[in-house]
Design a protein that fits this description.
Elements (H helix, E strand, L loop, with lengths): L7 E2 H5 L3 H23 L2 H21 L5 H12 L7 H23 L7 H8 L1 H23 L11 H23 L11 H24 L4 H11 L4 H22 L3 H24 L2 E2 L5
Antiparallel strand pairs: 1-2
Helix pairs in contact: 2-3, 2-7, 2-8, 2-12, 3-5, 5-7, 7-8, 8-9, 8-12, 9-10, 9-11, 10-11, 11-12
Length: 295
Amino acid sequence: MTDFTSLHSQLQLAHWGWTIAIFLWLVGLSGMGFFLNYWVRQKNFVYVLTVSALIGTALVVSHLSRMLNLPLAAFNGLMDFSFNFQSWMFIGICLLSVLCICSVFYSMIAANIIFKGPSWHKLAESNIFNGFFAVLGVLCTIYSGFLLTQAVGISLWNTALIPLLWIMSGMASAIGTIELLMVLKLIDPNRVSWSRKTSFWVEVAELFTIFAFVHVALSSSMIATRVGAESLISGPQATMFWVGVIALGSVIPLLLNLFTKNHKILFCSAVLGIAGALLLRASILFAGYYNPLMM
């Protein structure tokens, strides 16, 4: 076991706690949900994705303590055209803002608010319209993972596997949400008859990506990377990781989807898959350690 004494937990120093974990989870759910909505196109699903995008964006903005001055800063930047296009945070806020505005627009069409009539509904059913949302959703999900990879000094996150892992777990959350809405009869089951088979393969891909992430981290030459991985498999985050992410969040939903068609069990499987995606983000977030300045 690697010595922890020369390292500091990211959570203690940067205060990236549950607020950021929930933000990452909601953006992944909304982003990959809009990707899947290319095939679903059900209004209740769009409502859930819109709320997820709005809450997730509000959480990260409030965490930055810019809930009040961000609109003013954006207005001043627009007037002076003095935007920092080299800032990943600025790019991310722009992406999330577009996601929020467009998803609200989509929801208003679905709910017949302001944008009424057959022409608007025809637009909402078009492939181009839903294709735009699919691309935007994937970009926002990738960005939420890429944001971690740019964290200075936290080598556990400095891997291209995190955006891929966020995509897989975001897909799991989105499919779980589809299954919940289907069981509750809030979306047409005929539109999502593919969900159970897709859910199985997504869970398999997610487990494989998690294994690759941990294996690469344990094999790293960076001490903080190995410490972070060890905290996942046998350290402070092990219970959340093994029980919450692997067992309850991935393996059990995978087996339930494989061996049963019972709606009550499918409901439980969907809830576990959604919760597992949140715990995955939280465990990786909390397992980050800064590289030591001196050994």
